[in-house]
Amino acid sequence: MLPSLLSPNKLKKILTTSNNFYDKFRIVEANLGPNKEAYKNAHIDKAIFIDTLECSDSNHMYPRNVPKPDCFKDYVGSLGIGNKHHLILYDRSPFGFYTSSRLWWVFRLFGHESVSILDGGLRLWAYQNNPLSREEPDFKPDKFEIKENMQLIRTYEDIQTNLNTNKDQVVDVRGAHEFNRYIDEGLLNHIPKSKNLAYNDLFDKENLKLKDIEELKKLFEESKVDLSKPLIASCMTGMTACSLAFAAHLLGKSDVPVYYGSWTEYSQRRNN
Prior knowledge:
Elements: E1 5-6, H1 8-17, H2 21-24, E2 25-31, H3 37-41, E3 48-51, H4 69-78, E4 86-90, H5 100-109, E5 115-118, H6 121-127, E6 153-154, H7 156-165, E7 169-172, H8 176-180, E8 195-196, E9 203-204, E10 209-210, H9 213-222, E11 231-234, H10 241-250, E12 258-259, H11 262-269
Parallel strand pairs: 1-5, 2-3, 2-4, 4-5, 6-12, 7-8, 7-11
Antiparallel strand pairs: 9-10
Helix pairs in contact: 5-10
């Protein structure tokens, strides 16, 4: 079993020393949309291109909706991903988590726990002069079965209930300016009682990767997020909240659900 966070050096070592690597693993490039131009130009060798919005019914309320399970299992199975594979995810965002952490959450939501994220993504991989390829893989279709873990997702109704019970801390990862500004009728631009821990603060910008464990612990403490208590991750559209859930996972809290509608849904429904 690989760790949830994988350094480029660790991945390089596994690729060069493992026997029958592709019997046990799949490398996946997580993308937001179907455009494969950048992927075709350069990607990690034998990485599978996945559009994280495939199988999603997106609309103004849920612009980045959760994939439909039956469609998703057929989609990833057709790409050669099976339940026997440990998945190593990466993306092309500055620090490698924007889309990969969302796909990490989706796979776990659908019952597949054998998932790691490449720290720093493609940017750090390439910066460290690791090899890239233009050749697309051609894996045989595989069987991917889904067992939904509904403990990892929250709805608008769950958030409304929580406003009365105060059982869970709601943590919003939008930037502080966006979180704290006032909007219509003097209302604050966030879910009442929620806390703010900005997505951008999760990263070590000098080294192009996620902050280390001690820095992440300090960040949660400074944001007054108590990891010994239940929490729900939220953002604008259910994307960057997944990076917060991943960071909490690294700190030993693996049960953090994501409010998938996040502020986009909440802001439209709260006055109805």
